């Protein structure tokens, strides 16, 4: 386990390349508590990489640092089977930093761990994604929660920040700065999360038929309006962002998966 001025740092570094028409992991390094399962081969020559965590919690003094490097032509889907449980800390905040680079012709679908802040905890997540050019494909689905709602800890954390920047060729194409501080303002009265318990943020690089993709997403949201609410936005350069609100993380996960599967019909 590495050390820095904040304490222990759990690290995960993954690099994927392409060999003989198939994606392979060219380098994987990590410290406890992570474990990478044997990659699943996908029909298109890509791979699905699954992360398990021996301990899902971020404890006092711990930090997490993730880095992913998708080399030219490689295609990777990354998902986690664990939840980060953010525990209260006497000093400082729990922090995670994630850096992702996708080279020309590479493709990366990223499903980071949902985070569950406990009462009295504070969490800051920062993600920096760099796409080399127009041929670099990136998809992401992340889910945020209001806390342990079943235990009466709705918005009981000290602060919760999620900061994401995505650049293509060095040019900023997407930024999301979600920053909740219940002690400074009422989350309910200001409409934060609009009365729901879970929020899902999706980003996809521009599909070939963006209008068809957008229409199908809107139809899905209409069908699911009893379980959740949301909307889709076309960004300046033809990429799309989707934001969903609901009362159960599983519902948002299932709907997000349906949305991402639409890209198979409208490939990038």
What would your notes on this structure say?
This protein is mainly β and 268 residues long. It has 2 domains: 2-195, no CATH class; 202-268, Alpha-Beta Plaits (2-Layer Sandwich). The protein contains 2 helices and 20 strands. Strands 4, 5, 6, 9, 12, 15, 18, 19 and 20 form a 9-stranded mixed β-sheet that branches. Strands 1, 2, 3, 8, 11, 14, 16 and 17 form an 8-stranded mixed β-sheet that branches. The model is unreliable at 1-6 (pLDDT under 50). Required for maturation of urease via the functional incorporation of the urease nickel metallocenter.
Pick out its properties.
268 residues; mainly beta; Alpha-Beta Plaits; 2 domains; 9-stranded mixed β-sheet; 10% helix; 50% strand; globular; UreD; cytoplasm; nickel cation binding; chaperone
| Backbone shape | globular
Distance between the termini: 39 Å
Rg over CA atoms: 18 Å
Main beta sheet: 9 strands, mixed
Q: What structural class is derived from the secondary structure elements?
A: mainly beta
**What kind of oligomer do you see?**
single chain
Strand content: over 45%
Binned, the helix content reads: 10-25%
The number of distinct β-strands equals 20
Q: What is the count of DSSP helices, taking H or I runs of 4+ residues?
A: 2
**Secondary-structure element string:** EEEEEEEEEEEEEEEEEEHEEH
Total domain modules: 2
Low-confidence stretches: 1-6
Overall pLDDT, averaged? Answer: 87
Blueprint of the fold:
Elements: E1 2-4, E2 7-19, E3 22-30, E4 34-36, E5 40-41, E6 47-53, E7 57-58, E8 63-70, E9 75-80, E10 84-86, E11 94-102, E12 107-111, E13 115-117, E14 122-131, E15 137-145, E16 159-168, E17 171-180, E18 198-204, H1 210-223, E19 228-234, E20 240-246, H2 249-261
Parallel strand pairs: 2-8, 6-9, 7-10, 8-11, 9-12, 10-13, 11-14, 12-15, 14-16
Antiparallel strand pairs: 1-2, 2-3, 4-6, 5-6, 15-18, 16-17, 18-20, 19-20
């Amino acid at each position: 386990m590495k050390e820095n001025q904040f304490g222990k740092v759990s690290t995960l570094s993954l690099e994927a390349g392409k060999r003989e028409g198939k994606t392979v992991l060219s380098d994987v390094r990590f410290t406890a508590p992570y474990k990478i399962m044997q990659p699943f081969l996908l029909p298109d020559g890509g791979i699905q990489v699954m992360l398990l965590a021996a301990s899902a919690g971020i404890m006092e003094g711990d930090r997490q640092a993730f880095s992913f490097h998708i080399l030219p032509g490689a295609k990777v889907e990354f998902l986690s089977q664990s939840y980060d449980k953010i525990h209260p800390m006497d000093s400082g905040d729990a922090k995670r930093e994630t850096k992702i680079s996708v080279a020309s012709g590479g493709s990366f679908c990223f499903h980071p761990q949902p985070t569950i802040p406990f009462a009295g905890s504070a969490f800051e997540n920062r993600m920096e994604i760099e796409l080399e050019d127009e041929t670099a494909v990136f998809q992401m689905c992340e889910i945020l929660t209001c806390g342990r709602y079943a235990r009466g800890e709705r918005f009981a954390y000290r602060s919760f920040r999620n900061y994401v920047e995505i650049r293509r060729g060095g040019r900023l194409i997407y930024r999301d700065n979600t920053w909740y501080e219940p002690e400074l303002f009422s989350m309910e009265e200001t409409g934060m999360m609009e009365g729901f318990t879970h929020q899902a943020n999706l980003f996809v690089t521009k599909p070939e038929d963006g209008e068809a993709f957008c229409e199908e997403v809107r139809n899905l949201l209409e069908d699911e309006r009893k379980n959740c609410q949301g909307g889709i936005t076309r960004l300046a350069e033809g990429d799309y962002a989707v934001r969903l609100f609901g009362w159960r993380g599983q519902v948002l996960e299932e709907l997000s998966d349906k949305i991402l599967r639409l890209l198979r019909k409208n490939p990038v």
